[in-house]
Amino acid sequence: MDTQQMQEFENKIKYTFSNKEILLLAFMHSSFANEQKKGKHENNERLEFLGDAVLDMVVSEYMYRMYPQMPEGELTKLRASVVCEGSLAKLARQLELGKYLFLGRGEETTGGRNRDSILADTFEAVIGAICIDGGMESVTKYILSFMEKEIQQTKDSFKMRDCKTHLQEVIQKTSRYPVKYVIVSETGPDHSKSFVAEVHHINRVLGKGAGKSKKEAEQAAAQDALKKMEE
């Protein structure tokens, strides 16, 4: 990472480092440090450790404030989905973190610049670097610039994925009869179909929903049923 790349990266994240050395350290993979015979701690692992803890804290505090009705178990599951390796690697790719990395020859030749584990670790190391350089206010602003949207999207899909299971659990508390899903309509050409599903229980329609696939429509129907039950 040269001076021009540093400026390019700072422009991307809308944060300017006072200490450029800490920024360089965030991209220093242990494989490069070992090859260059650098000191024991001259890699990004300690920054990654700090960034991991800060990320958890900022995301947890945000979810606590934004979702006051969400119980602890669901908050834990949502946080785990948001800060998982795949999610962080996706955000790292959006920032093109891989191209700034200092990698050893072995990692370079085996595709390390695009490996999920390395990208996710680097994303956390950058968080750690901003925390050290600018403090909690700066790093919180940085994290939420990515995570607010990620949390909401994950929450929405997380809720949809669990609706059928949740509905079945609710029904089983008062009935031994299972729910049934019925596709009531199917429209559109083969490459862009739309489905409408109903969820039935003992000859009663509990909910109705639409989707681009049968599974999505069924989940939407389950979500509709749960919503009506809550009302």
Molecular structure report:
By secondary structure, the chain is mostly helical. The chain is built from nine helices and three strands; from the N terminus they run H-H-H-H-H-H-H-H-E-E-E-H. It has helices at 3-13, 20-26, 30-35, 45-66, 72-82, 85-94, 105-109, 116-172, 214-230; strands at residues 180-187, 194-201, 204-211. The protein has a three-stranded antiparallel sheet with strand order 1-2-3, covered by helices on one side. Helix 8 packs across helix 9 (214-230). It is elongated. The mean pLDDT is 89.
Question: Could you write a compact summary of the structure shown?
Answer:
The chain is mainly alpha-helical. The chain has helices spanning 3-13, 20-26, 30-35, 45-66, 72-82, 85-94, 105-109, 116-172, 214-230, and strands at 180-187, 194-201, 204-211.
**End-to-end span in angstroms?**
56 Å
| Sequence of secondary-structure elements | HHHHHHHHEEEH
Judging from the principal axes of the Cα atoms, what is the shape? elongated
Q: Which regions contain 5 or more consecutive residues with pLDDT less than 50?
A: none
What is the strand content? 5-15%
Radius of gyration from the alpha-carbon trace, in angstroms? 23 Å
Work out the helix count: 9
Question: What is the helix fraction of residues, given as a range?
Answer: 55-70%
Mean pLDDT: 89
- Across the major sheet, the strand order is 1-2-3
Query: How many strands, which pairing sense, and closed or not: the largest β-sheet?
Result: 3 strands, antiparallel
- Give the number of DSSP strands: 3
Instruction: Assign the structural class, choosing from mainly alpha, mainly beta, alpha/beta, alpha+beta, or little secondary structure.
Output: mainly alpha
